[in-house]
Amino acid sequence: MSTAILSIRPQPGAQATCQTGAEMGLEITPYPLSRIEPLAWEAPDPATIDALLIGSANAIRHGGESLRALRGKPVFAVGRSTAAVAKSAGFTVQLAGQGGLQELLSRIPAGRVRLLRIAGRDHVPLQLPEQVSMETRIAYAAQDVAMPDPMQAQLAEGALVLLHSAGSARHLRAECERLNLDLGAIAIAALGPRIADAAGEGWARIGTAPQPTDQALLALAADMCH
């Protein structure tokens, strides 16, 4: 496989993707184009919520004291890796998803449930099932950084970039345009349709993973590189 595969998600996610890729026989180079920074937030009265909805391990890593005050609440986690981070922080995971937050919401047990969603500044809108209510608190944000020279050189020669968020897709495109890089030499493997749409047009190829998991995204990347 000659096409370089690049991960631009922030750490520690980029390294996790590289490790998963290595287990699948893929060599992936991490070039984080953003870093996660915590934001000040206040938790609502714990008596007004039944469970926490967590769409990223970053919510656990950067939730701070406000999150620790809610440790007694069960967690609905977007996937296994997020669930593992929540458990290591002392939370009880009641449900772990397999296909994104919307899929997870559809699996919440019947009955009235009041959720607190702890999210990043750039987060996916959700349709709530009947009997489910939700408050949202923004606990962290991705701060974009400039593309490093080695990544520019690899993109100029042709590469495939893994996209895990709409924000990273927009930032990648903006950096490529700022640096006058040829989009037609760059392929994109996106975690979902919303992310692919955010990347826009003009790339060599754009593929979308059939499920929003690292394993599905990396399988797509392997197929695109053959």
UniProtKB/TrEMBL annotation:
Entry-linked CDD domains: HemD
Tetrapyrrole biosynthesis uroporphyrinogen III synthase domain segment(s): 22-218
Gene3D superfamilies in the record: 3.40.50.10090
UniProt name for this protein: Uroporphyrinogen-III synthase
Domain of life, per lineage: Bacteria
BP terms from Gene Ontology: tetrapyrrole biosynthetic process
Species in which this protein is naturally found: Alteraurantiacibacter aestuarii
GO molecular function: uroporphyrinogen-III synthase activity
InterPro entries for the chain: 4pyrrol_syn_uPrphyn_synt_sf (IPR036108), 4pyrrol_synth_uPrphyn_synth (IPR003754)
Classification of source organism: Bacteria, Pseudomonadati, Pseudomonadota, Alphaproteobacteria, Sphingomonadales
